[in-house]
Structure to design on (518 residues):
RNA sequence: GCGCCGCUAGCUCAAUUGGCAGAGCAUCCGGCUCUUAACCGGCAGGUUCGGGGUUCAAGUCCCUGGCGGCGCACCA
């Protein structure tokens, strides 16, 4: 021991500090022994799942003559005299290393003494089973692939603290199989959507996320600033307007899967950044898009679960097409028992109906918006089976084409599943002059205090003035689709790193107002 | 934003009416050549989220701040 006072070092050292100090000592010993704790590469001959698949039927107490090299993170360690059992984990698959002192080479024996749960390690040895039948690799040599300095959570209870799971997703992914499952499912879903669209000739594109004017949806944007241009920019709230400009430019079918940002409340169903799929097709109307939507949802469900039947939050749910199609007005008539309800009724009558059903309304809302309020309050939450809700009022649909048979509504649908909106689509409004009038109405609403109302986007209007074909557009909330198909209750469980407040005051955050020093 | 609930060892959790802060796992030391939540023995580990207050005495009560969860509002 040193002569220095131990007070500072020991009295203030937490258990975590002690554990990490011990691990650093092990690391130092390994380096002294000439072992590189961070080798530049490693070449396993097999993944753990490959070894498991190839030998799943091996009887107990069998030692094959097949030598494999595998790798993974140590998630379990059991010592029994000169025997050591290590549990290796790779991509959520576990395989045991049966380490016999007599079989290991000298270097491996020395390394084994310094190995902890959490370390990454490679092993070369024979495929075998133990007396109890556990498929194992019996290594003759071990290779350190990465030393862990921090301990992993409790091997049995894992990491259950919600906050820590989101803040330290790498730990969550290591110890909680369900986290891994959800994100694997998400990947398969997005791939299936891409495949399906590409199969119909849709071209994937990427449009700006920095917008001079936020558009394409009704939402409060994030504001940012570009130094060189000295320009206010907005993180996009939707890609819609740019994608439709591509249709105006003659791209027949396009889609984009990427992030949008909305500066609004957070909840189990809302994250400030979220992923949307939007697609646009020349010549199509919203009935064509309904067929496309059914196909996309089916493909996603099959990719996720191999079936269109699933259980969501304890309730069975069938996603088998075709989905029910019913107008928004008919749904509200049914829910209120008012068969005489139309968009032509005096506003006071509809407002009174809202009052009857305890639906809060705003004085600025017209009849269309009032009917939508009734729908959102009384109908949407109880629509469990997939339902295309059709023909929303013009008042709430500034970018959608007026219905060919009814000037009060648009050719629009929302797909509702499990009480939630999964998709929103319409026959796109392509009449430049009509679009300008709709924008003007939005600006009036903005002046009346609706800070989510849309602004006039001249570049977009100019594109429409160039001439647009009939166009069918679709938007799908990917996060919510994954929630549904993976059966999870909160959006934070389908986003790898959900937005959280910093867990401690952060004094050295970059200061965006400071002039560049270079 | 508002309301309710939570925060104790690295992890998972206890702590009676306000009365000495504990356990399991992990770590560390010792034992064991077929374990798999291994087992057996031993040592150690605490800013009870931060700050303030009441009290002889605060994890517990009060005030205040932080972070999270849920609900409401807004939306996808």
């Amino acid at each position: 021991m040193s002569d220095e006072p131990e007070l500072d070092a020991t009295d203030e050292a937490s258990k975590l500090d002690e554990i990490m100090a011990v691990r650093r000592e092990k690391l130092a010993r390994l380096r002294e022994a000439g072992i590189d704790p961070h080798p530049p590469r490693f070449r396993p001959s097999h993944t753990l799942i490959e070894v498991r698949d190839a030998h799943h039927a091996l009887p107990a107490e069998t030692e094959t003559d097949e030598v494999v090299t595998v790798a993974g993170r140590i998630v379990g360690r059991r010592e029994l005299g000169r025997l050591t059992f290590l549990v290796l984990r790779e991509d959520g698959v576990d395989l045991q290393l049966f380490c016999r002192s007599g079989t290991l080479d000298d270097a491996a024996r020395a390394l084994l003494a310094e190995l902890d749960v959490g370390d990454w390690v490679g092993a070369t040895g024979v495929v075998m089973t133990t007396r109890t039948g556990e498929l194992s690799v019996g290594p003759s040599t071990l290779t350190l692939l990465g030393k862990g300095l921090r301990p992993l959570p409790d091997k049995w209870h894992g990491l259950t603290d919600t906050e820590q799971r989101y803040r330290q997703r790498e730990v969550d992914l290591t110890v909680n199989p369900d986290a891994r499952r959800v994100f694997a499912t998400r990947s398969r879903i997005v791939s299936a959507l891409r495949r399906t669209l590409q199969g119909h000739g849709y071209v994937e594109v990427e449009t700006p996320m920095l917008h001079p004017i936020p558009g394409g949806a009704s939402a409060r944007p994030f504001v940012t600033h570009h130094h060189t241009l000295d320009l206010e920019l907005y993180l996009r709230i939707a890609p819609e307007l740019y994608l439709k400009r591509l249709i105006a430019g003659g791209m027949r079918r396009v889609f984009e899967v990427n992030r949008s940002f909305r500066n609004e409340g957070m909840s189990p169903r809302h994250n400030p950044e979220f992923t949307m799929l939007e697609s646009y097709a020349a010549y199509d109307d919203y009935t064509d898009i309904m067929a496309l939507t059914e196909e996309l949802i089916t493909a996603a469900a099959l990719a996720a679960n191999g079936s269109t039947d699933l259980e969501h939050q304890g309730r069975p749910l069938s996603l088998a097409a075709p989905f029910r199609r019913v107008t928004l007005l008919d749904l509200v008539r049914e829910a209120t028992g008012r068969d005489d309800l139309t968009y032509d009724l005096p506003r006071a009558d509809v407002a009174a109906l809202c009052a009857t059903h305890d639906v809060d309304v705003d004085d600025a809302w017209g009849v269309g918006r009032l009917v939508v309020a009734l729908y959102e309050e009384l109908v949407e939450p109880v629509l469990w089976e997939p339902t295309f809700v059709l023909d929303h009022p013009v008042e709430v649909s500034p970018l959608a084409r007026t219905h060919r048979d009814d000037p009060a509504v648009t050719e629009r649908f929302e797909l509702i599943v499990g009480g939630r909106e999964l998709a929103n689509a319409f026959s796109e409004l392509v009449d430049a002059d009509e679009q300008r009038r709709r924008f003007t109405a939005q600006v009036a609403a903005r002046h009346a205090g609706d800070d989510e109302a849309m602004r006039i986007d001249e570049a977009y209007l100019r594109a429409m003035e160039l001439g647009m074909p009939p166009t069918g557009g679709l938007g799908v909330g990917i996060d919510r689709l994954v929630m549904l198909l993976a059966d999870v209750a909160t959006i934070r469980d389908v986003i790898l790193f959900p937005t959280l407040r910093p867990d401690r005051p952060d004094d050295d955050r970059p200061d965006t107002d400071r002039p560049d020093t270079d």
In short: Confidence is low (pLDDT under 50) at residues 1-12, 505-518 of chain A.
